[in-house]
Amino acid sequence: MRRITRITTVGIASAALALSATACGKSSSDSGSSSDSKATKAAIAYDIGGRGDQSFNDAAYAGLKKAEEDLDVKGAEAEPSEGESDADKVQRLTALARSGNNPVIGVGFAYAPAIEKVAKQFPKTTFGLIDDTSKTGPNIANLVFNEEQGSYLAGVAAAKASKTGKVGFIGGVEVPLIKKFEAGFTQGVKDTNPKAEVLTQYLTQPPNFDGFAKPDLGKAAAQGQLDKGADVIYAAAGLAGSGAIEATAKAGKWAIGVDSDQYNQKGLAAYKDHILTSVTKDVSDSVFNLIKSVKDGKPQTGEIRYGLATDGVGLATSNPAYSSMTEMVAAVDKAKKDIVDGKITVKTTP
């Protein structure tokens, strides 16, 4: 069942108490016995939107869940608070580290400043930082992806599936990471059909990050693009992207999901027939691999990159409608081979 948690930022003491409870109490296997302190424990701190976003955060959770099942690891989770500051993130990560979790993983680039600070205070703890390489350290693993490569394939698919020659890109917040999605997608569309038009819209500008959290924003943006003739819409907008998928599906057009295979997300089941494909990032494996490396006594550190050549990014094929479009599939497969072989260099900025 889809679950979205919102924690309102209150006083420091209350927040600290809430975070400690979250960090220690959310694992289904947490019995509270004295032996728990000897167990291998790992934690993830969610990005904006929290668990239940059907996308980025849920992919991270899948990696933690796999570690619980396959590695006998006790997992802990911590949700974000609305409009929180870096100080809130520092507090959250500190609570998780003090509880004995190792590794502690920040889901999203917004955790970079906090992880840089907290990692220095806990040198024996490994910290995972997803989607950012700006902050490094001897106990920091930077888990990053070639989002532009997967988005290029989405652009090829969109250009082939479109009947109007107009497709849409919706970015949650206009930050460098999301510009990578836009750049790859637009290049893939234009390389496939130079006459195609790409309608682009960002939902919010930093420091307003609502564009990753509010489905109504994505829904309104998608409706605007549909009204202009777009018949394939790709949204890289976290939880807000679910609104774009809803609007696109209700209009009987094609949506392209992001981060997770959104065709298979239970919270989007009502719209799955219109989710042509999704640009996937192997966030799940990146989380699992980091946890395993720590458990094995050989913790990953530095830049750990996941790209198209290793299926670290890709295009989902779960929807039978996708596989039935043989010309499109052939074009996507060729584009993937050309990227892996170095014949196509995908841009990282529009």
What does this entry show, briefly?
The chain has 350 residues and is α/β, with parallel strands linked by helices.
Could you characterize the architecture of this molecule?
The chain is of the alpha/beta class and 350 residues long. The protein has eleven helices and twelve strands. The protein has helices spanning 12-25, 56-71, 86-98, 112-121, 147-161, 176-192, 215-227, 240-250, 283-295, 320-324, 326-340; strands at residues 41-45, 74-78, 104-106, 127-130, 140-145, 166-173, 197-204, 232-236, 254-259, 275-281, 302-306, 313-315. Strands 2-1-3-4-5-11 form a six-stranded parallel sheet, sandwiched between helices. The two termini are 37 Å apart. 56% of the residues are buried. Residues 1-37 have low confidence and may be disordered.
Notable traits:
6-stranded mixed beta sheet; 6-stranded parallel beta sheet; alpha/beta; single chain; globular
Any chance you could write out the topology, listing elements then pairs?
Elements: H1 12-25, E1 41-45, H2 56-71, E2 74-78, H3 86-98, E3 104-106, H4 112-121, E4 127-130, E5 140-145, H5 147-161, E6 166-173, H6 176-192, E7 197-204, H7 215-227, E8 232-236, H8 240-250, E9 254-259, E10 275-281, H9 283-295, E11 302-306, E12 313-315, H10 320-324, H11 326-340
Parallel strand pairs: 1-2, 1-3, 3-4, 4-5, 5-11, 6-7, 6-8, 8-9, 9-10
Antiparallel strand pairs: 10-12
| Widest β-sheet, arrangement of strands | 2-1-3-4-5-11
Radius of gyration: 20 Å
- SS field, number of helical segments: 11
Amino- and carboxy-terminal Cα gap: 37 Å
Mean pLDDT: 90
Query: How many E-type strands?
Result: 12
Strand and helix order? HEHEHEHEEHEHEHEHEEHEEHH
Residue fraction in strands:
15-25%
Q: What structural category arises from helix and sheet content?
A: alpha/beta
Low-confidence sequence ranges? 1-37
Helix content: 40-55%
Largest sheet, described in full? Answer: 6 strands, parallel
Give the CA-based shape. globular
